[in-house]
Amino acid sequence: MGSFNILSIAGTDPSGGAGIQADLKAFSALGGYGTTVVTALVAQTTTGVAAVHPVPPEFVTRQLTTLLDDVRIDAVKIGMLADTGVIEAVAAALDAYRLRNVVLDPVMVAKSGDRLLAAEAIEGLRTVLLPRADLITPNLPEAADLLGEDEAADLEEMEEQARRLLKLGPARVLLKGGHLSTGDSTDLLVEPDAPAVPFTAERVPTENTHGTGCTLSSAIAALLPQRAGVAEAVRDAKSYLTEALRRADDLEVGRGKGPVHHFHAWW
Ligand SMILES: Nc1ncnc2c1ncn2[C@@H]1O[C@H](COP(=O)(O)OP(=O)(O)O)[C@@H](O)[C@H]1O
Ligand SMILES: Cc1ncc(COP(=O)(O)O)c(N)n1
């Protein structure tokens, strides 16, 4: 088996539960070699975001070109982008280096409700980055914001919204149902001209959900070069996340919504 280099382009989390720190843990756990480009320094913990310090777009570009001139990248996870300048810097590098297996998690707000993407940058995310992604992984509020619609309330509305998101240009959409008030937790994988594929997991009874979205998108990116197709990568990423959620209450990290517990995967 070969060695796979996975890149996270995202913001930071000093408490280690979300952002770049979560992404590196997921990459390692799933057999990838992790590399990173930082888009914003975020002073945050399990209790919320205290401050955001975006990296100037020229310096995001400098990190990208320095890395990509040396290291072959087999898959990319894109998370927090902060503002329009950073979005444009990332899009330019995706094109210049013809990056493949691009998973875009359209991060907009932290679980605490604090903004991680400027409201005026949503248009740039929609028009500049969505068309360049092989897979986008919005949660229900992010899908609604990207479409300018209300949040989907059931699986049928989720599929309709995922199909409208496809029209914005990504090759596939994984619409995450973590925010639905259902007994289990179902995400829908939708691509053109094929039936939607549901991925269902038990809803784990824990308050410690800091980093679930970061972990899922990073796990998918780490697995894409190692699996036969996107559906197989999503299936195994979702099982990894569910087990990390089951183990979350073993950790003692902070006073708020604690992180999921990364572990060495069994496959
Ligand atoms: N309590 C839970 N039990 C099991 N899976 C969950 C739970 N909460 C979220 N998930 C899963 O975690 C992933 C991310 O969740 P979601 O809350 O939808 O996104 P985000 O973290 O981006 O807000 C999805 O696969 C979702 O189904
Ligand atoms: C830098 C950064 N990126 C993303 C998130 C969202 O985290 P979650 O995975 O809990 O939705 C976060 N809190 N911080």
Automatic annotation (TrEMBL):
One GO CC term on file: cytosol
InterPro entries cross-referenced by the UniProt entry: HMP/HMP-P_kinase_dom, PM/HMP-P_kinase-1, Ribokinase-like
Annotated catalysed reactions: 4-amino-5-hydroxymethyl-2-methylpyrimidine + ATP = 4-amino-2-methyl-5-(phosphooxymethyl)pyrimidine + ADP + H(+); 4-amino-2-methyl-5-(phosphooxymethyl)pyrimidine + ATP = 4-amino-2-methyl-5-(diphosphooxymethyl)pyrimidine + ADP
Gene Ontology molecular function terms on file: ATP binding; hydroxymethylpyrimidine kinase activity; phosphomethylpyrimidine kinase activity
Single Gene Ontology BP annotation: thiamine diphosphate biosynthetic process
CDD domains: HMPP_kinase
UniProt signal peptide: none
Biological or metabolic pathway of the protein: Cofactor biosynthesis; thiamine diphosphate biosynthesis; 4-amino-2-methyl-5-diphosphomethylpyrimidine from 5-amino-1-(5-phospho-D-ribosyl)imidazole: step 3/3
One Pfam family named in its UniProt record: Phos_pyr_kin
EC number: 2.7.1.49, 2.7.4.7
Alphabetical keyword list: ATP-binding, Kinase, Nucleotide-binding, Thiamine biosynthesis, Transferase
Gene3D superfamilies, sorted: 3.40.1190.20
Chain ranges of the Pyridoxamine kinase/Phosphomethylpyrimidine kinase domain: 13-261
Described function: Catalyzes the phosphorylation of hydroxymethylpyrimidine phosphate (HMP-P) to HMP-PP, and of HMP to HMP-P.
Name the record gives this protein: Hydroxymethylpyrimidine/phosphomethylpyrimidine kinase
